Protein: Bifunctional NAD(P)H-hydrate repair enzyme
Amino acid sequence: MSRSGSGYELLAPAEMAAADRAAMDAGVPGSVLMHAAGMAVAEAIAGRWPRGRLLVLCGPGNNGGDGFVAASILAAQGWPVSVALLGEREQLRGDAAWAASLWTGPVMAADQVDFLGYDLVLDALFGAGLARELDGSAARLVERLAGSGLPVCAVDVPSGVDGATGCVRGVAAGAALTVTFERGKPGHWLYPGRALCGELHLAGIGMPPSVLAGMDIQTWLNDPAVWLDVFPFPGELGHKYTRGHALVLGGASMTGASRLTARAAQRVGAGLVTLAAPAAVWPVYAAALESVMVAALDDTQGFAKLLADERRNACIIGPGAGLGASTREAALAALRLQRATVLDADALTVFQDAPQALFDDIQGPCLLTPHEGEFARLFAVEGGKLARARQAAHLSGAVVLLKGPDTVIAAPDGRAVINGCAPPWLASGGTGDVLAGLAGGLMAQGMPVFEAACAAVWLHGQAARQIGPGLVAEDLVATMPGVLAALFARKKNP
Ligand SMILES: NC(=O)C1=CN([C@@H]2O[C@H](COP(=O)(O)OP(=O)(O)OC[C@H]3O[C@@H](n4cnc5c(N)ncnc54)[C@H](O)[C@@H]3O)[C@@H](O)[C@H]2O)[C@@H](O)CC1
Ligand SMILES: [K+]
Structure:
């Protein structure tokens, strides 16, 4: 899936509607925005497909209005265009009624549509105004569209996809191309909506920049623009003691996991990394690690004792840690001392019986990195992925990084980022351990938690893209220098 256009700010449909209203208040008529939207759709279609028989499906609101505009423009360019309307023409209101008046050809009733005989469909049924599950004639039409096998261009979102959540409300037909306006929406980047959008094209429609600049945007696509300003680029006068000291808890049996974590923390720039492991397995770790220091833990309080040295300013606990008391004690010790703390894997599950006890101790900088299973063990929250991550951050007081193909990072203050750069070959054992190490390594260097989490996810995804299929977790660590070099170059030449 390729994505064109610029812009990493995301607006939920209700926010986009508010922007539309503000633009109108600022003196840009809705019809002007709608004409620009329809024109952008027509241009996108003409730029992508050879001229062919086009069926335009218009809905009862302004999404349908965009469809009427695009139909009129393409017909004037000589495209054979047919238009069908879901609903009654007399019921159209405002800008949509104006747009329909531009179309002088026949308008079919949606239930009369026969998909045979067309080369392409423009789906302008529902966009930002989707308010409930599709049912009845609307659902039947979208089901028939999905089953038609025809290529689809969707206006704003594929009809039935909720722009706020990416969830399908009833039914939706996948598009080859989705043309949206001014800013992307969370639903373009959250699955299943993301897969249903096909290629995403972002078109400007003349919204005054002051309108968008005046919005309190809280949701972004993961992009260095969100966090580059606070990324810890090493200073010329820096030395290892100024670049943080990450302390990683090693487990008694799954020794590879925390080694990956420690190496990732090093690679991303932590000045020093110590791996603290039970004394019985200390030789395993010590033999496998050179520049990572290995400390032997003789009891469950050992980790807390290591934290007495304040220079150990960040902790990464969980990968391969095991579900015993030592993992729990280490996590609580780090949190109580308000060290920058990453809790991953076992360090999340170990609190499943009493998550509030964990949340009560989160007073300082803390990142939780659950996958969906671990998340469900800690948080009884419902809704789309973005809303659930936000609620979890609010409830716990930690930044929550909810993993998956569309990883969401949410901060307790309401900010959230959706990641769009993780290829599917990242889904393999050990990659999460590397991610925890990258985040913790950045936090050790003083990067704020939310931005560190976003940067870690981005670096992880970029490394995976460079490696390609066949990736194993170790490759991510080895690829990090090249990814960082490209990021450093971007910092110099933004
Ligand atoms: N001036 C504007 O507001 C602009 C809006 N634009 C377009 O307008 C769209 C938003 O327009 P609207 O807010 O009118 O919303 P939509 O056109 O997406 O949908 C609203 C209509 O659908 C009906 N509806 C909602 N959910 C339904 C369901 N499940 N089953 C059956 N009917 C349902 C509503 O009753 C209403 O009639 C955007 O997606 C974009 O395409 C663009 O033209 C840019 C300018
Ligand atoms: K649509």
